[in-house]
Design brief:
With about 230 residues, the chain is α/β, with parallel strands linked by helices. The protein has 10 helices and 6 strands, in the order βαβαβαβαβαβααααα. It has helices at about 20-30, 45-55, 70-80, 95-105, 115-125, 135-145, 165-175, 180-185, 190-205, 210-220; strands at about 10-15, 35-40, 60, 85-90, 110, 130-135. The chain has a 6-stranded parallel sheet, sandwiched between helices. α4 (about 95-105) links the parallel β4 and β5. α4 crosses α8 (about 180-185), α7 packs across α9 (about 190-205) and α7 (about 165-175) crosses α10. It is elongated, with a radius of gyration of 20 Å. The N and C termini lie far apart (about 75 Å).
Length: about 230
C-alpha cells in the first residue's frame, strides 16, 4: 500500500482571528488531500467550543487572538479534550511565542509562510505521535536545549498569601525583567504573567512595578548587591 492510500482524512478546525487569513487557510486545505476542514474559529474561546462540539483530530491554532489567546486555548483543549492535537500556525517564531505554546501541549509549530503540503504533513505527523515542527523551530529548540536557562529560585518564605509562582514573578520584576522576558524565563505566555502580576498587586496592595521592587527588597525576597 502506498503512503497515504486509504488513509482517513484528518478532521481539522482552523482558529485565526483574521478573517482573510482564516478563510485563506480553509480554502487552501480544501484543495489538498488528506485533510477535511470541519470548522473555523475567530478566537480561542470559539476554538475550545468547536472542539467540544466537533471532536476534530487537529486544531490549527493561531497565537495572538482576542478573548482567549492560542496558548490558553491550547492548554484547555489538551486538558479537556486530549483526543484533539494542536498544531500552532502563527506569524511568530520567537521564544516568547514558541515555548509557552509547546509547554501548553501543542505538538506542532509552523509559521504562516509554510506551504499547504507542509501543513498537511504536520497534521498527520502529530496524529502519528510525532512532532510537526518546521525546520526553523527545530533549530530553535536545539539551541534552547543546548543552553537551558535556570529556573528562578523560589523564595523560602512567601509573604501576604502570594503563591510561589507569584513570588517568582515578583523577584523577576525586581531584577528588572519585562513581562516578555519573565514569560520567556518561566515558559509561560505574557497573558499568564500579567495575571500573576495583577493577583500579586491585589494581595499586596501595590500599585506599580516601582512599589513592587521596594516591596521585594523590603520582604527579603531579593538581596541588594554586595558592596
Amino acid at each position: 500500500m502506498t503512503e497515504g492510500a486509504a488513509r482517513k482524512p484528518a478532521r481539522v478546525v482552523v482558529a485565526d482571528d483574521q478573517t482573510v487569513v482564516r478563510e485563506g487557510i480553509v480554502m487552501l486545505l480544501g484543495l489538498l488531500p488528506g485533510v477535511e476542514v470541519v470548522g473555523a474559529a475567530g478566537d480561542g474561546e470559539e476554538a475550545v467550543r468547536l472542539v467540544a462540539e466537533l471532536a476534530p483530530d487537529v486544531v490549527l491554532m493561531d497565537l495572538r487572538m482576542p478573548r482567549c489567546d492560542g496558548v490558553e486555548a491550547t492548554r484547555r483543549i489538551r486538558s479537556e479534550h486530549p483526543g484533539t492535537q494542536v498544531v500552532v500556525l502563527t506569524t511568530y517564531a520567537d521564544d516568547e511565542s514558541l515555548f509557552p505554546a509547546l509547554k501548553a501541549g501543542a505538538r506542532g509549530y509552523l509559521t504562516k509562510d509554510a506551504g499547504g503540503d507542509e501543513i498537511v504533513r504536520a497534521v498527520h505527523s502529530v496524529l502519528s505521535g510525532d512532532a510537526g515542527l518546521s525546520p526553523s523551530v527545530q533549530r530553535r529548540l536545539l539551541e534552547r536545549l543546548s543552553a537551558p536557562e535556570p529556573e528562578p529560585a523560589a523564595p523560602a518564605v512567601v509573604p501576604d498569601g502570594l503563591t510561589t509562582r507569584e513570588a517568582e514573578v515578583l523577584v523577576l520584576i525586581a531584577e528588572g525583567l519585562s513581562n516578555q522576558e519573565i514569560a520567556r524565563r518561566l515558559s509561560v505566555s505574557t497573558a499568564t504573567v500579567k495575571t500573576h502580576i495583577n493577583n500579586m498587586f491585589s494581595k499586596t496592595g501595590l500599585k506599580d512595578r516601582a512599589q513592587a521592587v521596594r516591596y521585594a527588597y523590603g520582604k527579603g525576597l531579593v538581596r541588594p548587591p554586595a558592596g
